[in-house]
Amino acid sequence: MDRRCIMARILFCILSLLLPWLVQAAEPRLAPDSWEQQRTLVLGGQPVYLFMAKEGELTAQQRVARVQARLQVLETADASHPVEATPYGQGASAGYRLSVNGKSLFNIVAGDLDPADGLSLQQSASNVQQRLNALRLAYLEEHSSGALATALALSLAGSVLFAALLYLIMVLRQRALLRVSHRHALFPGWLSKRQTLGRLLQRAEGSIINLTTGLCVIFLSYLWLTWLLGRFPYTLPWSRRLGSFLWQLVATLGSDALSAVPGLLTVGLIFLFTRLLTRGLQLIFDMAERGQLRFPGLHPETAGATRRLLGVVLWLFALTVAYPYLPGADSDAFKGMSVFFGLLVTLGSAGIMNHAMSGLVLVYSRALRPGDFVRIGDVEGVVTELSALSTKILTRQEHEVTLPNAVVVGGKVENYSRTSPGRGLMLTTTVTIGYDTPWRQVKAMLELAAHRTSLADHSEAVVVRQLNLQDFYVEYELQLRALADALPQAVRSELHGHIQDTFNEFGVQIMSPHFMDQPEQPVMVPAAQWYAAPARPARAEGDQTA
């Protein structure tokens, strides 16, 4: 490498360092608007000169287009000659002609000067001459055989580094997936038995790892492509566009993130205060539900529902207050989403609100609660769940019946457990006996059958009532209380068996005489035939008659 080449490189480096400072003190603007961009001559991504005035019949935009056309017809040999600035004219018609190898590029006239720059015509021409020479030297440097060889070597080295980083990312991804799989294999017993939950967590973590890997690969590929295109002069503009886009994207995201910090802090404080308030209300209502606190109009049965309602109201109020501080709350997209969700709620809330309000009626009327034995219409069983929209009942066949709350409120609800908390259910059964049997005997036999029932609570008196005097028979009702843990269907089944045995034992038929002639002998089963085949006597089943 000769001395001339060394000096050219040194000059190129010096001009490259000084070029940004020169641009700040000359006509081109660092942040031009659309009007200035149309009048600025840009070469190699660098602003060179801002045309302010007309030259003859040519406007500023036409002058820029003419310069670009002249540069395209220059030959490679012209770049080896320095750019010259030659003055011409005097007074108002004075100017400088910039040329290279005797070929005119463009003229600088007095009308192009901006008084705010504080530059004379000669100083402006000198600045433009330095910028053009710097660009010329850069062009020679980039298009030299040594520069191209260096660019190829750097491109190859960068590609190898890019491939190595991709391989490293894939290795890290594989190790992360293996670690996730191994960690899920070491879950505690209560969680490992839930295969669905374990698989869901494993898939979620695997998806996060894959998504992170994909983003890293895309970002790394973008950086590698930008750097690779910047090694060659022909693809340098593409590299600058990619870099400018990435820088603008990062700057925009960073600026938006910083501007959103005060609003997010405000939203966080609002939600934190709401969370503390709801926790305090939860403690108070839990104590009221356990009976440790008493408030007028608040019952233990309604404390849980009241707590949930107040929690929903508080969170809705907090969301309303925090909405203006959310990032993008005033954007059209956010407003469109609000309208969309509002429309969905409006269209789907008619039936839902009907059931929800019916659920509130059930809760605050204390008509039923989980654990109560009820009869709703033709459904009889134990209430297992009382939610905002429906009520679930477990029948004696162990079938779960779901009733919408609007249906429950619109019908008749018979609650067998409400008047006897902590005790067994009060059960009734009816029999119809003819007028030829003394009612006192019927009453005594029903009481005896009740006392023989092992699932009945014998600490409480048995009640026998004559409900109706019909045309051919008397309707009797037997009422007793079952044990606390006894099922109604089991108690009724045992009681009905003892009623039949008792009436057969004393020779009284259980048959409503809906006929014209009375049978010659009572319709009953003798005691000797009580255990006719295939029945077998079993005292363990509750048969206490001897």
Automatic annotation (TrEMBL):
The keyword Cell membrane applies. GO terms for molecular function: mechanosensitive monoatomic ion channel activity. Pfam families: MS_channel_2nd, MS_channel_3rd. The chain crosses the membrane at residues 147-169, 208-225, 245-273, 309-326, 338-365. It is a multi-pass membrane protein. One of its GO terms (cellular component) is plasma membrane. Mechanosensitive channel that participates in the regulation of osmotic pressure changes within the cell, opening in response to stretch forces in the membrane lipid bilayer, without the need for other proteins. Contributes to normal resistance to hypoosmotic shock. Forms an ion channel of 1.0 nanosiemens conductance with a slight preference for anions. Homoheptamer. This is Small-conductance mechanosensitive channel. It comes from Aquitalea aquatica. The lineage of its organism: Bacteria, Pseudomonadati, Pseudomonadota, Betaproteobacteria, Neisseriales.
